[in-house]
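Suppose you are handed a protein chain with no further information: no name, no annotation, nothing but its sequence. What can you learn? This example shows the usual starting point.
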Amino acid sequence: MSADKLREAIFNINTRRFGTVCEAIVAKIAEFGASRNQFHDLYCDKTDSRIEVKFSRVQNKAQIAIQPDTVVDAIFAELDENRTIMFDKWRTYEFDCNIQQIKCSEFEILYYGLFFWDKLLIFRINSETIKIDQRLNYSDKQHKGNVGEGQFHINNKTLQHHIDTYLAHDMSYTDLLGVLSN
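A reasonable first move is to predict its three-dimensional structure. Written in structure tokens, the prediction is:
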């Protein structure tokens, strides 16, 4: 298995499996154990902390919006469009990574990450900071009736704050393959 194949697989894996892969990455990097219940993803015995994990793949905005009269064209455009973004070019692209379904009362620490085409960034933030850092633009109203569940977006206008304030790991796909192979 090569680092290039690992990257391609990560960008193609379905959503539910993607989340499980990201949990495994964080568990290996930070040496966390299994969750204690279904309301968080991992557990840290050293600090007695519940850990939540949320990741996203960074991709350029699609050229064709999905609307009733463009849906077929939008679907087939995905075959020909290269929407990948290299990290050093992130300021020049429009992208929107939604870190969602955040239930701050269910964890102490959130690990969230962004897969660029050439590297992975992993961030770490505690649940209380999510609520008070105004620059996150955290909204605790993700869906009607979902009390205590929120989200924040990372895009080309907000990423620098995350890098400056919450970056925990910056790794290549070769580094990631090494972590996962051990």
